[in-house]
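Practice problem. Given the sequence and the SMILES for flavin mononucleotide, write out the predicted structure.
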Amino acid sequence: MRMKKIEVSQLTENFFETISKEWMLVCAGNAEHYNMMTASWGGIGWLWNKPVAFVFIRPERYTFELAENNDVMTLSFLGHSKEARNIYQVCGSKSGRDTDKTKECGLTPLVLDGKYTAFKQARLVLCCKKLYADNLKPEAFTDASLNETWYGKKGGYHKMYVAEITNAFIQED
Ligand SMILES: Cc1cc2nc3c(=O)[nH]c(=O)nc-3n(C[C@H](O)[C@H](O)[C@H](O)COP(=O)(O)O)c2cc1C
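Answer key:
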């Protein structure tokens, strides 16, 4: 199967459902050096008159290093198949620092528009270009319970990346 480019404005996904229940692979880097991880937090929206994605990555992830050092990232949505669930489990529990997740998951990397690394197994890929990034901070929480629940023992403060969605690709029938 091949992927076909569509306008971002053609997307009719319910991203509340998609991100929270289907999940996604966040992949940062380039064709030679990339890494991906499962994410189920994030958002799709409209900012600075652009379609944008909001991605939250904890500093301990290997993907964080790649996100910091590259201008682009992709969001790959794999669907609900058994194969997809397995890929999400592996990419959400093992680190690219010590595991070749591409090999272990049987993923086929794909370079879209010359610079966006994603995966052939995706039903939908959003190609994203970083615009803004900042660390979440304890003093910025207006609901302190979230800070207590999600940080400290659970891990470091996420960095939020706001990225322009420059293109979307779907599977060609
Ligand atoms: C369902 C699910 C959702 C996750 N969402 C996020 C997320 O939004 N941000 C994050 O930093 N880590 C998230 N993780 C954890 C990373 O996917 C996990 O730590 C992964 O092994 C990191 O891999 P890496 O070290 O190769 O980057 C999630 C894990 C799972 C299973």
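Check your answer against the key. The radius of gyration is 16 Å.
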